[in-house]
């Protein structure tokens, strides 16, 4: 049986040696070279099963010179490796028909496995376009982002459904936009809809459209988001907030490939790619009966886990500079960051992720007079931002506690009609006690704060056996 032959183009001798040794240990033959010219000479006199090429080869580019490779062997599978770890590199590799792309440093075992899989070649069928890194929506070269870039590159030529998972503010819509704008549907529309922002009773009409008179206020027929996105991409953000009745209809549409407008009888053929996103835990949603498991598997064909900013802190300087440049393009004054300010940004926890970083940069650009943003400018903004986050978190915690208390009360009550009085009792006592504390035991002041009559307050204090004299 003929051994699988590999042509390796790598100008770093140590990397070349490591790859060659690993492939030879698998029983493959390996020819190595360092330049594009040597690569072309070897290809002219030999037949290879796989080509592995670096991108940076001195003054040459391993990707842009692949036309010469295709001219000699149009079906040769190409594996691209590169230290130029940007989304641009991953996309360029994909657009030239690369079998796989590996950012350096890479997993050697994974590379060997991909070489094994590269027996059946793929033919490049998309034109090579020059893409500027600054025009791309995603910034960062950290290892977690490299995995995101690789996954995006794999999705550009197909219509597989994608589920983007990540915390709020990590850039889920930017990933969806990248998949659309760099993929084969880029000439079509990109339609984004936030499930959490649509009233429950209007969500089906919003997605699927409606006919005139279908419901009160439907004075004319209207196309829904599915029809508006025809030929392009429909991005369903916060899909975990979709009500169950709409989930059932969405599942039916994805299964059949057709939709009908609310109040309509005709069917509309779907021609759209579905990308969904959520910051919620789907396993918990399914366990709680809030999301259909069959729909989950329909939309989660290809998952992309978007890392929080704290897990890719090495990207913070590049992101900060990106936002400074973005601010300039929007008419704001030119600014720079001092080294100390940049270090402070890099150490911050970033609960609000990339969105929070952008807000901090923009606030600093607008409020600071000096051209160089110093640490003394950045720190107060971060502190103010942190105080805002704490207030938001406190409000969220309180809302969660209220819901939990109400759920417990309902579960404990034989007579659900009595729930209002029980809930009021739970919240009214601590409300009265804390208001009295804030008023220093002064009942007139406490009544004014609460916006109630003093006699009403006295009656409530007696009812709950609260002694104003014990107030702090």
Automatic annotation (TrEMBL):
<dbReference type="InterPro" id="IPR002197">
    <property type="entry name" value="HTH_Fis"/>
</dbReference>
<keyword id="KW-0678">Repressor</keyword>
<dbReference type="InterPro" id="IPR003593">
    <property type="entry name" value="AAA+_ATPase"/>
</dbReference>
<keyword id="KW-0010">Activator</keyword>
<dbReference type="GO" id="GO:0005737">
    <property type="term" value="C:cytoplasm"/>
</dbReference>
<dbReference type="GO" id="GO:0043565">
    <property type="term" value="F:sequence-specific DNA binding"/>
</dbReference>
<comment type="function">
    <text>Member of the two-component regulatory system NtrB/NtrC, which controls expression of the nitrogen-regulated (ntr) genes in response to nitrogen limitation. Phosphorylated NtrC binds directly to DNA and stimulates the formation of open promoter-sigma54-RNA polymerase complexes.</text>
</comment>
<dbReference type="InterPro" id="IPR058031">
    <property type="entry name" value="AAA_lid_NorR"/>
</dbReference>
<dbReference type="InterPro" id="IPR001789">
    <property type="entry name" value="Sig_transdc_resp-reg_receiver"/>
</dbReference>
<dbReference type="Pfam" id="PF00072">
    <property type="entry name" value="Response_reg"/>
</dbReference>
<keyword id="KW-0963">Cytoplasm</keyword>
<keyword id="KW-0535">Nitrogen fixation</keyword>
<protein>
    <recommendedName>
        <fullName>DNA-binding transcriptional regulator NtrC</fullName>
    </recommendedName>
</protein>
<keyword id="KW-0805">Transcription regulation</keyword>
<dbReference type="InterPro" id="IPR025662">
    <property type="entry name" value="Sigma_54_int_dom_ATP-bd_1"/>
</dbReference>
<keyword id="KW-0547">Nucleotide-binding</keyword>
<keyword id="KW-0597">Phosphoprotein</keyword>
<dbReference type="GO" id="GO:0005524">
    <property type="term" value="F:ATP binding"/>
</dbReference>
<dbReference type="Pfam" id="PF00158">
    <property type="entry name" value="Sigma54_activat"/>
</dbReference>
<keyword id="KW-0238">DNA-binding</keyword>
<dbReference type="Pfam" id="PF02954">
    <property type="entry name" value="HTH_8"/>
</dbReference>
<dbReference type="GO" id="GO:0000160">
    <property type="term" value="P:phosphorelay signal transduction system"/>
</dbReference>
<feature type="domain" description="Response regulatory">
    <location>
        <begin position="5"/>
        <end position="119"/>
    </location>
</feature>
<keyword id="KW-0902">Two-component regulatory system</keyword>
<dbReference type="InterPro" id="IPR011006">
    <property type="entry name" value="CheY-like_superfamily"/>
</dbReference>
<dbReference type="InterPro" id="IPR009057">
    <property type="entry name" value="Homeodomain-like_sf"/>
</dbReference>
<feature type="modified residue" description="4-aspartylphosphate">
    <location>
        <position position="54"/>
    </location>
</feature>
<dbReference type="InterPro" id="IPR002078">
    <property type="entry name" value="Sigma_54_int"/>
</dbReference>
<keyword id="KW-0804">Transcription</keyword>
<keyword id="KW-0067">ATP-binding</keyword>
<dbReference type="GO" id="GO:0006355">
    <property type="term" value="P:regulation of DNA-templated transcription"/>
</dbReference>
<feature type="domain" description="Sigma-54 factor interaction">
    <location>
        <begin position="138"/>
        <end position="366"/>
    </location>
</feature>
<dbReference type="InterPro" id="IPR027417">
    <property type="entry name" value="P-loop_NTPase"/>
</dbReference>
<dbReference type="Pfam" id="PF25601">
    <property type="entry name" value="AAA_lid_14"/>
</dbReference>
């Amino acid at each position: 049986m003929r051994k699988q032959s590999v042509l390796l183009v790598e100008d770093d001798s140590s990397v070349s040696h490591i790859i060659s040794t690993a492939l030879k240990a698998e029983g493959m033959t390996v020819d190595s070279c360092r330049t594009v010219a040597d690569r072309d000479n070897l290809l002219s006199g030999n037949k290879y099963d796989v080509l592995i090429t670096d991108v940076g080869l001195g003054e040459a580019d391993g990707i842009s010179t692949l036309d010469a490779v295709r001219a000699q062997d149009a079906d040769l599978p190409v594996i691209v490796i590169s230290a130029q770890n940007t989304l641009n590199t991953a996309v360029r590799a994909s657009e030239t028909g690369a079998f796989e792309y590996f950012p350096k440093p890479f997993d050697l075992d994974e590379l060997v496995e991909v070489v094994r899989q590269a027996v059946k070649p793929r033919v490049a069928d998309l034109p090579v376009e020059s893409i500027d890194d600054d025009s791309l929506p995603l910034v960062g070269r950290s290892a977690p982002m490299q995995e995101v870039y690789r996954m995006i590159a794999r999705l550009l030529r197909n219509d597989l459904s994608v589920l983007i998972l990540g915390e709020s503010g990590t850039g889920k819509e930017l990933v969806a936009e990248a998949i659309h704008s760099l993929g084969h549907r880029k000439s079509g529309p990109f339609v984004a809809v936030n499930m959490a922002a649509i009233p429950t009773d209007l969500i089906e009409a919003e997605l699927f459209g409606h006919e005139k008179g279908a419901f009160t206020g439907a004075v004319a027929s209207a196309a829904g988001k599915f029809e508006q996105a025809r030929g392009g991409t429909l991005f369903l953000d916060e899909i975990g907030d979709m009500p169950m009745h709409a989930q059932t209809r969405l599942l039916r549409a994805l299964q059949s490939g057709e939709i009908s407008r609310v109040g309509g009888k005709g069917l509309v053929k779907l021609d759209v790619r579905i990308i969904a996103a959520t910051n919620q835990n789907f396993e918990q949603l399914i366990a709680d009966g809030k999301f259909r498991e069959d729909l989950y598997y329909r939309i989660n064909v290809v998952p992309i886990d978007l890392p929080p900013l704290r897990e890719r802190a090495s990207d913070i300087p590049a992101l900060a500079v990106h936002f400074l440049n973005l601010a300039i393009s929007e008419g704001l004054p030119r600014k720079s960051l001092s080294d100390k300010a940049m270090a402070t940004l890099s150490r911050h926890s970033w609960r609000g992720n990339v969105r929070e970083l952008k807000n901090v940069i923009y606030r600093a650009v607008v409020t600071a007079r000096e051209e160089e943003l110093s640490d003394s400018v950045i720190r107060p903004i971060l502190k103010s931002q942190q105080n805002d986050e704490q207030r938001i978190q406190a409000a969220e915690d309180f809302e969660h506690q209220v819901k939990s208390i109400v759920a417990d009360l309902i579960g404990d009550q034989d007579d659900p009609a009595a729930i209002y009085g029980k809930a009021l009792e739970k919240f009214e006592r601590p409300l009265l006690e804390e208001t009295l504390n804030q008023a220093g035991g002064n009942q007139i002041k406490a009544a004014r704060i609460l916006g109630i009559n003093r006699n009403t307050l006295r009656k409530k204090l007696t009812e709950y056996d609260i002694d104003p004299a014990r107030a702090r």
